Amino acid sequence: MLEMLITAQSIAVSEIEILIPDAIDQLLVPARHGNEGPAHRNLRRLGLVLAKAIDPHAGVSLEHWVPCGSAHALIDIFAETRHGRIAIECGTRDGRDIPRLLKASADHVVILPFAGWQGSRFNALGFSNQHARPLPRITYTAMVAALEMQDLDAINTI
Predict the structure, then answer these.
(1) What sign does the dihedral 25-29-31-34 (CA atoms) show?
(2) Of 126, 95, 96, whose CA–CA distance to 111 is shortest?
(3) Is the separation of the CB atoms in 49 and 152 below 8 Å?
(4) Contact 106, 89 (CB under 8 A)
(5) Are strands 84-90 and 71-81 parallel, antiparallel or unpaired?
(6) pLDDT tens track for 74-131
(7) How far apart are CA 74 and CA 138, in angstroms?
(8) What's the whole-model pTM score?
(9) Do residues 49 and 143 make contact, with C-beta atoms less than 8 angstroms apart?
């Protein structure tokens, strides 16, 4: 289904290259409900900084329940930005959920795959509604500024 919607250009797909600031490893992330390995924690850390690099004024929530078709889905990071609602998934996400999320809850879905690390760069995948406002290019400067302004007390958790 996802492939069909991409081919029909109902959903846009883009590669997102992220330049990672050195100090990102020092950012402490709130504890997650349940078990979490270090690889997933690193992706959440990157996702939190990415959300603020996209929009410094974004409202960011961790582990946020959103409508997804006839059910609800738990999103790792959900951001309300001036570019629309962004669901950031760390690791994996069932591809069948992406069209449902884009229809019901998000303007953009960004997947941060476990295999995305490439030294000081990270390769993510973005899916967007065809009418969504485009996400800005993620610059190193924006990532550094977002990392420096992180106020984790202001992030909502379930």
Answers:
(1) negative
(2) 126
(3) no
(4) no
(5) antiparallel
(6) 899 999 999 999 999 999 888 888 888 898 899 999 999 999 999 899 999 999 988 8
(7) 25
(8) 0.87
(9) yes
